[in-house]
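Fold this sequence, please.
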Amino acid sequence: MNNRFGIKDLILIVLIFIVLISLWVSLWREDHRFKQTLTQGDRLAALERQLGRIQASLDDPNRPVGTRTPQGEPQRDTSWARPGVDIAWQPPRHHDSDPMSLPDVEMGGTLIEAFVAQPSTVVPLVYKDVYGAYVFERICEYLGEYDPKTLEIRGVLAEAWQYSPDGTWLRVRIRDEARFSDGTPVTADDVIWTFNWMRNPLVQAERARSVTDFISSIDRIDDKTIEMKFREVLFTNLSAALGSFVILPKHVYENVTPTQFNEATGFVIGSGPFKFAATSLDTQWRPGPDVVLVRNEQYWGPRPVYDELRFKIINDDLARVTAFNNGECDITTPTAPQYGQLAKNEEWNKSNTAHLWHNIRGGYNFIGWNCGNRNERPTLFNDKRVRRAMTMLLDRDLINREFFENTGRVATGPFYRVTEQSNPEIEPWPYDVAGAAQLLEEAGWTLKPGQAIRTNADGRSAEFEFTFAQGSEVTERLANYLKDQCARVGVRMTVRRMDWSVFMKAVDDRDYDAMTMGWSPSSPESDPNQIWHSRYIENQGDNFVQWKSEEADRLIEKGRTTLDKGERMKIWHQLHSILHEEQPYTFLLERPWIRLVRHRVGNFVEYRNGFQYDEMFLRSGSSSTPTN
């Protein structure tokens, strides 16, 4: 056979060679362009840092460029104030535990926390859960906050305020140096616009409206001063007016429609120490990848010392702690059994710390019984005797011991047992299976001979669906335990597991029979209005168990308007008694905060209201590696 190399073969080889050269040139150009993009990004970040230092110098001429703590006593302008009323001046914004004062502080790096659940949105006002709040509270700021050491209210964006002696108005002065991440100053117009936007019925901000409904109006006094008028005098007026809603930039959001705002998932711009690198409706974060925030180089207060804050979403308990142990995150929340196991592991403690402490945000776990209708049909739990029977079926001491490693305390109601709000005369309902069966009989759910499931006079079976967010080993154990206990008294329970965001939608839509979750208060004295008043059953309010009690509504309204603390505590004790009798929730356990923290994280401080993200720093020598 002849093997001839002809002109066609030569042409083919030449063409292949040309194509390969072209591909190589194209790849080289793309690589060069990518490197140029990175270089330009680095230059932009460096320029932003320099602008931030220059702005800091302009804010305080006595402060050298690059330092963090203002020096000298600022001159105080009082022209904004009402005459004859005391002014509460606030200290300059500062770290409660300054990382720059520590000898081993290091600059830069990425701090990674693994969340338990996926937030569906991190947008203020319309957020759905605590994880959304964890994110936007790093980006946006309130007028005031609770001091983490004393739990006294203090200014954030507010430099000073006057609170009327009769409790009917509050005048607030905004700090001159406060500005949003785009460099625009925070003004009175931003506060007023945020309030009016929140009151817009087309904005799905029922939770925010429920905790600010006492404010009748906000007026502009000057560019940096606003005055709030209160429709009623409440014990929470000062703290709630300053700390119930973050301030949004009017010049950014006034061009957004209510529908766009409601449907946004990561379009968040604020005045806080962190920001999203991309801030537009088109480039906003959407559920799926990590939530990545970068340091706000133009932050007007003390800036974080690390560059980036990343929140990973790992729903599964085992996978989350495994990721922590593999160095994929720096901070995470374990289950109580995981905490108990790791805290006793000497080898593990050489490079990590397991933190457990009680603070005002610890909250409580509960099972919520839908007291109203589901799909226009009354649930099994519209009778308080059935709800109380469910509570008495559960051995909460056993749950604490075997599911939570004795880290919790059996709850009696929505108020922490060590606080003055809690009625000391109330004891938890006992574990009593026979008593639970008797209550079911009294409620008309009888167990006929030869039947395994109770029925009522209409022939309806005693059965319900237990809905919860999947991923938690402890919740799975609780569901199995509840199912077994119900079977002992002739009640059939089925299980519905859902992703967190889908679960929260089912709760908002009241599409469940029973569910489990937890509440974390944000203030030393809780206002029960948002969760327990019947007005917040509608419009996706937080009374999602649809519990109605005229007496409870009356006590809530009376307690909120009672300024004498001793008298107010008596009212809360009465409300506590009604909730104890009615059992719209089975109050399971009061819970501490538990966190696993790697030793590479410096300045992690246990405060009375949690911990502060912007105070921490990262030691070199080990790193957490982002995966997306």
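Residues 37-46, 61-71 have pLDDT under 50 and may be disordered. Residues 7-59 form the longest helix (53 residues).
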